[in-house]
Structure formats: C-alpha cells, structure tokens
Amino acid sequence: MGHHACVMKTTFLLSKIEEQVKRGMKELMNTAPMP
Predict the structure, then answer these.
(1) What is the DSSP string of 1-35?
(2) Long-range CB pairs of 5-10, under 8 A, 24+ apart, other chains included
(3) Burial 5-35 (b: 16+ CB within 10 A, else e)
(4) Computed over its alpha carbons, how large is the radius of gyration of the chain?
(5) What are the Cα distances from residue 3, in Å, to 31, 32, 34?
(6) What are phi and psi of 18, to 5 degrees?
(7) Which site from 2, 7, 21, 34 is most exposed, i.e. has the minimal number of CB atoms within 10 Å?
(8) φ, ψ of residue 5 in degrees (nearest 5)
(9) Model pTM greater than 0.85?
(10) CA 30 from centre of chain
(11) Is the dihedral of CA 23, 20, 31, 29 positive or negative?
C-alpha cells in the first residue's frame, strides 16, 4: 500500500460522495414545492 494507492482510494471515495450528493440534490428539487 503506497502513497499512490491511498490517493486513488481517496479520489474514489470522493467521487462516490459527490455522486450521492448530486442524487440527493436532485431528489430535493423533485420533492420541494415549486414557488
């Protein structure tokens, strides 16, 4: 387990989190009442 593997793992986790955040935002937009 070198430094490179650590960076790859972190990047992967961040992309996963970003994906979930985007999905959550989409759901919020869908459920939020339109002004």
Answers:
(1) --HHHHHHHHHHHHHHHHHHHHHHHHHHHHHSPP-
(2) none
(3) eeeeeeeeeeeeeeeeeeeeeeeeeeeeeee
(4) 15
(5) 42, 43, 47
(6) -60, -40
(7) 34
(8) -65, -40
(9) no
(10) 18
(11) negative
Backbone dihedral region for residue 32 (phi beyond 0: left; psi -120 to 50: alpha; all else: beta): beta
d(CA 35, CA 25): 17
Query: Can you read off the two tokens belonging to residue 8?
Result: 């790859």
